[in-house]
């Protein structure tokens, strides 16, 4: 089975659905402007029954040290996802500060955006290749937008990576086929409205991703 990350979880029933369906990563969103945002205490409660072998990932956008430390004091995350404009040096700092592996999200819209995959591959533990958000977007991710997956075809990566951006149960197998991704990450595609996850959509997505890998 390929690796699936279900991001932006806010309810225990959806955590359970994701775990039972075989998700390897669960994403908890700490970006205040997101409709998927949770507090550290809420994330801690959601993580309480997550079994070993399933990683709890904290999603942050340009976090300062205090936010990272305060969140980790309550929620024992396994990994940090950085989804803002963090420079490579900040990725290294966050790794050192938290002692946790870091997933760095890279927005892709055109071939020029691909150079960053190499630069961040030198410092991050895992890469997350997402669609670049539109200029006027409120959210730097989680917009349900895909990019031209053919840009990644045959691309050598320095680190393990997840494909994200506009993935759904309907398109994930094709996305995996075109990019060679060994893992995928989804938020909007398993929701009925922004921030409203759906257990059936989570199960359908994981089954479809499994069929594609
Ligand atoms: O989901 C959010 O609200 C979000 C907010 C800020 C940064 C990143 C966010 N989500 C990440 O974006 C990918 C792609 O989302 P989608 O499937 O296209 O909706 C998602 O998997 C999250 O990792």
TrEMBL record:
Residues 4-207 form the N-(5'phosphoribosyl) anthranilate isomerase (PRAI) domain. GO terms for molecular function: phosphoribosylanthranilate isomerase activity. Keywords: Amino-acid biosynthesis, Aromatic amino acid biosynthesis, Isomerase, Tryptophan biosynthesis. The keyword Isomerase applies. GO terms for biological process: L-tryptophan biosynthetic process. HAMAP family: PRAI. It comes from Paracoccus tegillarcae. This is N-(5'-phosphoribosyl)anthranilate isomerase. It catalyses: N-(5-phospho-beta-D-ribosyl)anthranilate = 1-(2-carboxyphenylamino)-1-deoxy-D-ribulose 5-phosphate. SUPFAM superfamilies: Ribulose-phoshate binding barrel (SSF51366). InterPro entries: Aldolase_TIM, PRAI_dom, RibuloseP-bd_barrel, TrpF_fam. Belongs to the TrpF family.
């Amino acid at each position: 089975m390929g690796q699936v990350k279900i991001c932006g979880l806010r309810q225990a029933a959806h955590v359970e659905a994701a775990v039972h369906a075989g998700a390897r990563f669960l994403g908890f969103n700490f970006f205040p402007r997101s409709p998927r945002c949770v507090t550290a205490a809420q994330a801690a409660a959601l993580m309480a029954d997550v079994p070993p072998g399933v990683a709890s990932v904290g999603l942050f956008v340009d976090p300062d040290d205090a936010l990272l430390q305060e969140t980790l004091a309550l929620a024992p995350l396994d990994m940090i996802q950085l989804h803002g404009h963090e420079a490579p040096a900040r990725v290294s700092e966050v790794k050192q500060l938290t002692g946790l592996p870091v997933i760095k999200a890279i927005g892709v819209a055109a071939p020029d955006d691909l150079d960053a995959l190499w630069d961040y591959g030198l410092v991050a533990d895992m890469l997350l290749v997402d669609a670049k958000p539109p200029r006027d977007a409120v959210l730097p991710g989680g917009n349900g937008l895909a990019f031209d997956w053919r840009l990644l075809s045959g691309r050598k990566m320095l680190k393990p990576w997840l494909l994200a951006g506009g993935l759904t149960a309907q398109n994930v197998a094709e996305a995996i086929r075109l990019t060679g991704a060994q893992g995928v990450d989804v938020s909007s595609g398993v929701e009925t409205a922004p921030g409203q996850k759906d257990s059936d959509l989570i199960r359908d997505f994981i089954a479809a991703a499994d069929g594609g890998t």
